[in-house]
Amino acid sequence: MSMTLKEILNEVLGQSAFLQRDAFAAASDVDSIQMVSFANLVRAEILDYHHWTQLRKTETLTLTSALSYDLPDDFNWYSTESMWKAEGARNVVIPTPDYYWAWLKAGNPGTGIQYYGKLIDGKIEFASVVPGDTINFDYISKYAVRSSGGALKERFTADTDTFLLNDNTLIYGTKAFWKIEKEMPTGALDMQTFKKSLRTDVAKTSPSKTIRAGNNMTPFSPPIDSNYSW
């Protein structure tokens, strides 16, 4: 069973020989508030480091006459070669190279593939569409936190929130950043433990290639910035 944010942060304190606390997210003292901030920082570091298959989802688009479609609210990475036209199981070329995109947008026909697309400004844009067709694709969600009520969200905001990935990695990372901030002598060693735990978590997954609609890179996945055109 996943640990709550309160349990995670108290584990950080316990491993660091500090007394445990009754609250963090709703606390008024600076250190508790800072610990929640570090937990969210480490959460973001973990999500940027790898395309975690535990967060993989499938999205279905039913095409209309429009060429542009919103990405899911929780979209973080697009899993390459996962986009298919459901009817006939034909793949979609995305991202389409710039030179060929310009050719298609000029009204020229594609060669053998019906659908060509790009990630532009947080949307999926197609060169042309057939209304009524269905497009399926996989992506990695940025929602790695679950509330006590079961809702998925991006950040920790309550002591009862839980993490969808490895609690221990979150503990190691939060402890490392917190200790370094407090200038404790073992902070650098804790950072090494955090990085080792990340590598171990990666080794336990079997990922496919992904493309990110954002600016950050990982050692494993080339990004696409959704604010620009590829």
How do the strands and helices of this protein lay out in sequence?
Blueprint: H1 5-15, H2 30-49, E1 56-62, E2 68-70, E3 75-79, E4 84-85, E5 90-93, H3 98-105, E6 115-120, E7 123-126, E8 134-141, E9 145-146, E10 152-153, E11 162-163, H4 167-181, H5 187-203, E12 210-212
Parallel strand pairs: 5-6
Antiparallel strand pairs: 1-8, 2-7, 3-8, 3-12, 4-5, 4-8, 6-7, 9-10, 9-11
List the defining traits of the structure above:
5 helices, about 30% helix, about 20% strand, 3-stranded antiparallel beta sheet, about 230 residues, alpha+beta, 9-stranded mixed beta sheet
Please characterize this protein's 3D structure.
The chain has 230 residues and is an alpha+beta fold. The chain folds into two domains: 5-53 and 143-209; 57-141, no CATH class. The protein is 31% helix and 21% strand. The protein is built from five helices and twelve strands. The protein has helices at 5-15, 30-49, 98-105, 167-181, 187-203; strands at residues 56-62, 68-70, 75-79, 84-85, 90-93, 115-120, 123-126, 134-141, 145-146, 152-153, 162-163, 210-212. Strands 1, 2, 3, 4, 5, 6, 7, 8 and 12 form a nine-stranded mixed β-sheet that branches. Strands 10-9-11 form a three-stranded antiparallel β-sheet, with no helix packed on it. The longest helix has 20 residues, at 30-49. It is elongated, with a radius of gyration of 21 Å.
Order of helices and strands: HHEEEEEHEEEEEEHHE
Low-confidence stretches: 214-230
Largest sheet: 9 strands, mixed
Q: How many distinct domains?
A: 2
Distance between the termini: 42 Å
Based on secondary structure, the structural category is alpha+beta
Number of strand elements: 12
- Morphology call: elongated
Helix content: 25-40%
The count of helical stretches stands at 5
Rg, Å, rounded: 21 Å
The average pLDDT score comes to: 87
| Proportion of strand residues | 15-25%
